[in-house]
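Practice record 12: protein with uridine-5'-diphosphate.
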Amino acid sequence: MATERTFSIIKPDATRRNLTGAINAVFEKNGLRIVAQKRIQMSQAQAETFYGVHHERPFFKDLVSFMVSGPVVVQVLEGDNAVAKNRELMGATNPANAAEGTIRKLFAESIEANSVHGSDSPENAATEIAYFFAGSEIVG
Ligand code: UDP
């Protein structure tokens, strides 16, 4: 299996409820290593660009407002098949459909306030990592 990197965000609903450590424990217990991490307040412009692919969707405006409603933790996770592994650990977008034991089943409040973001492909992971981190901030 290939060692890979993926991009993760612990969203404002989770930082607000002090769940950063509990969520990262799920990653670490399952073989994903946190090789970069910072707590930031995302700007409106950053959130709009980050979620630009969704800008025609009805939920876009509310999603951007939610993402700037409090601090987030942006991070890079590394491990075997990290992109797919992270998506599996996160669970379905809507917590009502998320499998038992997944982060969204355990912690998400709603389809919007669903605690975590994770890249959906290695290509998007590379783009998203570069959007938030300089190479020198990632220490494997
Ligand atoms: N989202 C939302 N309403 C929806 C679908 C998605 O608010 O009906 C939000 C939710 O926070 C989700 C994000 O938009 O995580 C990005 O949606 P996507 O379909 O890419 O889901 P993900 O890859 O995060 O599971």
